[in-house]
Structure formats: C-alpha cells, structure tokens
Amino acid sequence: MMKKDSVMHIGFDDTDSPKAMCTTFLAYKIVNYLKEESVEFLDYPHLIRFNPNIPWKTRGNGAVALSIKTNNPEKIKRKIKQLVKKYSDTKGGANPGLVFYEKNTIPSNFSEFSRLALWRLINRSKAKHFAVKNRIETLSLGNGQGLVGAIGAIGYKFQDHTFELISYRKKSHIGKKRIIDKESVKKMQEKTYPTTFNSFDHKKNRVIITPRGPDPVFYGLRGENIKSVLVASKMIQIDERLDGYMAFKTNQGTGDHLKNEIDIFELKPFTSGTIIGIVSKKPQVQRGGHVVFSISKMDKEVLCAVYEPTKITSITQQLIVGDKIRVGGGVRKATKNHQRVLNVEFLEILKLEKDMRLENPLCKKCNKKMKSKGKNQGFQCIKCGKKASEKIIHEIPRKLTKKLYLPAVSAHRHLTRPLQRMKRINQEEKFDPTILWCQQFRN
Question: DSSP letter string over 119-170?
Fold first, then answer.
C-alpha cells in the first residue's frame, strides 16, 4: 500500500558566518536533493529578511522556508538534517536552527511570531518554547539562535513580495575575486526597468548585485516577478562558469521592518520602526560627515543619527527646529561612550517651519544691507548714508520640500523599499512548476 503524501513546511536560518557559507546556498543544495526525490513543491522557496538591526546577524538576516508534499517525510528529514550539518559554518560562529512542521495549514500564531521578528529582538528561549508548545520538530546547533528565523520563515505571510535570483559559484571559485562585466549590468538595468531594481548605482558607477565576502554567491538579481529575474540573468556577462542558480520569493524591497511605530517611551534597543516628531535640536555635523539631531514627541526627546554613506546628510543639515518629520530606522543600544540613538534609514518631511531670522536692514535705495554703527547706535548704508534704528525679521527660503528622502542605492538594506516600488504592491503570485526556478548546470 502506497503511503499518502503529506505536507511538510521546512524552515532554517543562521547557517552562515561572516567568513563562510550562506543560508540560501544551503537551500539550493536542499532543493536539488528534493528534486531527486521527486517531491512536489507547493511554492517557490521563501527568502525572508528579518529585523536588520539585530547585532549578531550576518549580512541580510535572511531565513529560508520550503513547502513540499512527500510520501516519505522521515527520509526527507534525515537527509535535510545531514545537509544542515554539512553546509553550516558552526566553526565560524553559525548557530543553525532547523524546523519541520507537518500540517496542511499554518496557524495564525506562527504569523504573529514572524511579524514580531521583523522589527524586534526575539529571545531564542522564546523560540524554543514556541516550538515545544506547537509541536514543531527542531534541530539546533550552537546556541540555537537560528530557530527564531526558522520558525519566522515558515510563519511569514506575504502582503507584498519581490523575487531574487541568486547564482552560485563552483567550489573551486569560492573565495576568488568575482569578475563581472559592468556594462552588461548597466544595460540590463536600463532594459528591464522597472521590473528589476537595485542592480547598478549610477551615481557611484558601481555594480551592486555582487557580494564582497568569501561566500558561495556570485550575484543576486532583484525583481518584481519570477520572469523578470530570469530574463535579466540572461543579460549578465561574467568570466566564470557557475554551479547553478535558484530564484526565491522574498520580502526584499518591501520595507517590512519599518511598518511598526516605535514606542518612544520604551525605545528598546534593536527595535526597528518609524517615529513622527518635531525637530527639537539643530542638526550637528560630526566627525566623518555623520549628522545628529533630535526630535520630540509628547515631550519625549529622541536622538537621531544619519550616516554619511546614506548621502542624505546634506538634507538633514537643512532641518531647523520646528520641522515636522517622519523617520524610519533602528534603535542602537547605548554604550559607555554613546547614548541610545535612532539610526535613520529614511527621512520624510511632513511640514516645514518658516525660517525667520533677524538681519541687518536693507537700504531700499541701494538694495544693500546696512552696516551696524556700534552697540545701540543703529545701522547706516555705507553707500548713501541712509539710516535705520533696528534689525528686521527676514524669511529665508527653504530649499527642502515636503517629500520622502531615501538613502543612496548603495546604502539600501535588503528590506529598503526603493523609490520605484513606492506605489507598487505585488499580490499573491501563483506558483508555476514548469518554470526553471532552480537549475544546476552540468560540468
């Protein structure tokens, strides 16, 4: 008697370290194994980026989830556990978490767990308790921190989505310099706009789809749908034979982590979100070109920092006390030398205060500013001799406008919603198993 197919949801996270491996590469290896077992895939692999302000994250803080149907779940689980152990850099500090959930539907409390992981810090003990309570089969190595992302990945519900096609290097090339044709990337972006995004920074004349570390990824192409990234990948010219590629359905470019409104009375470290407030302290430029200023809300003041690589420091410097703004970012923990601060990822001007200043009076005849004759002695035009007794209030035109200011493309985080996506929401995209969303090239 044949075994009946059962639905299995698989989630894993924190298998990489700053020095080696990649969680998406493990996913690529797992999917290629599952294809050999002839399982039924229920959707594209999910690559979910969680709170980017977690201090121990590696690169994009991404976890992966797979949903399949199989008639031999125990065999599948054994093999995946082996692959997690093999392709996790535990020696380099990775703390992998792997979960299996064998139910057709995923309960709503999973989604709530996932939603919280987008903007706050979740303790690994809470993840372990959640797994026991919900009868989730788990495997954890190291301290098990990866269980948070693993559970969050299978619980995530898309309100908007994008795709990323990630190409992988052969073992012999990992760690070597990536050679990619810059012009091909530039032309690809021009031809595929607006169905792809964040591939090339024209201001810096720089390719931004290739990582810099020694991990197995060669490049990652981001787009609005599965077809857009597959078409775009064919336009990229590289000087290397790749191992293969896999396309992920992802929450990148959705601004998911900044949908939460930060509680200014708690201002918990590592929290991500937004605050609307009034500029209460004039911006100051610090060493390195970074800018700090304060905003207030309900008599509570919050220190904000805008860093030079974002290239919105010039905008920040023009703020004045009284401007109403909305800022998004993450709360940095206080240290011995620095107080708690909101690291700003974007800035939106909601209302501009009039910039009124006391200035020397203007000679109407000569159209020149008068000079002071000395303390309490009034003012006089040095050209015609006309006099005035006091300074005048003058409004300085503001160069800022009421709009959203985003960081430079090179400074975008994985979750940053690009300008071209501001009015775009991708609804559920039906899984098409006939599309070559994962392919391993022959030697």
Answer: HS---HHHHHHHHHHTT-EEEE-TT-THHHHHHHHHH---SS-EEEEEEEE-
